[in-house]
Amino acid sequence: MSTNQPATSGDPDANGPSARFLPSFRVAVAQIEPSLGDTSANLALHRKQIEAARAAGADLVVFPELSLTGYELRDHVCDVAERRDGPSLRAVAAAAGELAVVVGFVEEDRAAGFYNASAFVDRGRVEHVHRKVYLPTYGMFEESRYFASGARVRGFETRFGRIGILVCEDAWHLSTAVILQADAIDLLIIVSNSPGRGVGGEELGSRVSWDHLIRTYAMFLRVPVVFANRVGYEEGVNFWGGSVILDAAGCVVAEAPELEPALIVGEVDPLLTRRQRILAPLGRDERLHLTLRELKRIDDERMRHDG
């Protein structure tokens, strides 16, 4: 995280910790209602949200899962798919200008494989693409019928520090958090198309579950967490929103309402993240070799049993 640049300010604190770490930055979450299969309309919506985020002083704008296409695509996946250098991502990059953007799209590979993907675009370039690893195919979900699974979970370097991206179901597998903690991320971004389920009393079950999950990740990984969820209806399914930005202590920095479009903006302070890591150095004390050894033992035992 160090900038490795000598301090030149006359400020007496110029050579202190704040001079060695990245400055605070502002993250916007665009909680939108995409139009199913209409990339032109969704691009227009992205441009509008990017301009609003720019006016609010944001440095990074995060859109939900499959924000350029909508979710319930089914057999239309191949109709909206494009390569990571395709026209939609080029248009997003052009609209973003000096801003960084996380955007959801359907990626097509060279062999006509299709992925539920999220791209990190900065200064006119696609710097990283995360392909959703865990495809839910139970209950109302049927993603593995239409998408291929991603094969990597990893952090990547940005001007905001090292970032990890997970797409919805990825976050419900604790192994992804373990990997990203070991990969020393500074910020976790989770993008989602979470449907509203489990209405009881005054709380929505989906929201309660996600609140527990993302707060746990913030507190145990000691990193800020950005959760971007969509709103609206598709094929009779409701998406509840409730996007939120948490700091590394698990405290809410900014929060969107349920069930309606919104743009929220919150500040991420790397020095606060540093303080939380000093107070509880969980990542430092993680015994990665022990974890790998025990997982290998369990895998070997399962292979012997299955054989």
User: What is the CATH architecture annotation?
Assistant: 4-Layer Sandwich
Radius of gyration: 20 Å
Assign a percent range to the helix content: 25-40%
CATH class call: Alpha Beta
Can you count the helices? Answer: 9
What is the domain total for the residues? 1
**What fold name stands as the CATH topology?**
Nitrilase/N-carbamoyl-D-aminoacid amidohydrolase
Average residue pLDDT? 91
* Sheet having the most strands: 6 strands, mixed
Q: What is the tally of beta strands?
A: 16
CATH homologous superfamily annotation: Carbon-nitrogen hydrolase
Short description:
Helices cover 31% and strands 27% of the residues.
Please characterize this protein's 3D structure:
This protein is α/β, with parallel strands linked by helices. It has a single domain (24-306), classed as Carbon-nitrogen hydrolase (Nitrilase/N-carbamoyl-D-aminoacid amidohydrolase, 4-Layer Sandwich), CATH 3.60.110.10. It contains nine helices and 16 strands. The longest helix has 19 residues, at 288-306.
Based on the model shown, name its key terms.
307 residues; alpha/beta; Nitrilase/N-carbamoyl-D-aminoacid amidohydrolase; six-stranded mixed β-sheet; 9 helices; 31% helix; globular; disordered N terminus
